[in-house]
Design a protein that fits this description.
311 residues; alpha/beta; 8 helices; 11 strands
Length: 311
């Protein structure tokens, strides 16, 4: 449960830190409309799970903070609504999802029609904003619907290049796997990006993803410092952990953080998330010149899979 007193304190702290990018609204100005879509065709994370008809943990936090940023959130797990007309009613989309969303899958909620997936990609390409949180990169896996990890016959996970799923190309990267939750640090690449100031060396207990299929035009904001991390999937150089990039006329922001409830309560995460969302909505500007090779030159060096245990 959210401890009300501590949550309000954290929220106020996050809002104070975010004054540089929070929109200045007058009473006459309409709030931005944002769809928070959190259907799970694969694993359903605890922060998006609704119980006893109550909003999910992350939904409560967004509902609390949204109006203060000039954002009205719609919370939905119903993929059947994805039509061009429905999507046109929002200024941006926030995804916390898993698996092949065109199948009903684990949570039993209605799937996105195949045409609905294309409608989403078209909407972003034509100028809508998109924000992916954590397992948004564990969604629409390249080549293998349902979320299993693609690999080539040599036993190495691989970058798929032009063959990557269109959703992955839009998002800018794809989940490979994760190890045990652990404390790791992030390297701040762009302190000028909205909400990113003061995050250099931030140590976070998280379920850290190992990622691949990075879009060549990524603007890396935070990189994961893999030094000392436990798990074969992290035996690689620093790679993008939070980024922004353009997708035709649309703006896309992603952060791999957000697995844990205490991360969602953290004012630094709230600051980063709403900074990225404010940029994706076009409320603030930022220089998102591609910097993948300069910031994380080893990003595409993927470690081998851990060999199967001998019986």
């Amino acid at each position: 449960m959210i401890k009300r007193s501590s949550f309000v304190l954290l929220s106020v702290t996050a809002l104070a830190a975010a004054t540089a990018f929070a929109p200045a609204l007058t009473a006459a100005e309409a709030h931005k409309k944002v769809l928070y879509f959190n259907k799970s065709s694969g694993y359903e994370h605890s922060v998006i799970k609704r119980q006893n008809g109550q909003p999910a943990f992350s939904e409560k936090i967004l509902a609390e903070l949204g109006p203060k940023y000039g954002i009205d959130f719609t919370f939905s797990k119903d993929g059947s609504l994805f039509t061009p007309e429905y999507l046109a009613g929002f200024d941006a989309y926030v995804f916390y999802t898993t698996g092949d969303l065109t199948s009903v899958g684990a949570d039993g909620n209605p799937a996105i029609p195949v045409a609905g997936k294309q409608a989403l990609l078209d909407a972003v390409a034509h100028g809508k904003g998109f924000v992916g949180i954590h397992s948004a990169s564990d969604t629409f896996h390249t080549g293998e619907p349902g979320g299993t990890n693609p690999k080539d016959i040599s036993g190495r996970y691989k970058n798929d290049g032009d063959a990557a799923d269109p959703y992955i190309k839009m998002l800018g990267g794809e989940f490979i796997k994760h190890g045990a939750q652990q404390v790791a640090k992030v390297k701040l690449i762009d302190p000028k990006f909205p909400g990113a100031a003061g995050l250099d060396g931030w140590a976070v207990q998280e379920e850290w993803y190992s990622l691949k299929n990075f879009a060549p035009n990524l603007h890396v904001i935070l990189a994961l410092d893999t030094t000392g991390m436990k798990g074969n999937e992290y035996k690689r150089g620093p790679f993008p952990s939070t980024w922004a990039h353009s997708y035709e006329k649309g703006r896309v922001f992603y952060t791999e953080m957000g697995h844990r409830e205490d991360v969602w309560e953290n004012p630094k995460f709230q600051q980063l998330l709403f900074g990225g969302l404010s940029w994706a909505l076009g409320e603030v500007e930022a220089d998102v010149t591609p910097n993948l090779q300069q910031a994380t030159p080893q990003a595409n060096d993927i470690p081998p899979r851990t060999p199967p245990a001998k019986k």
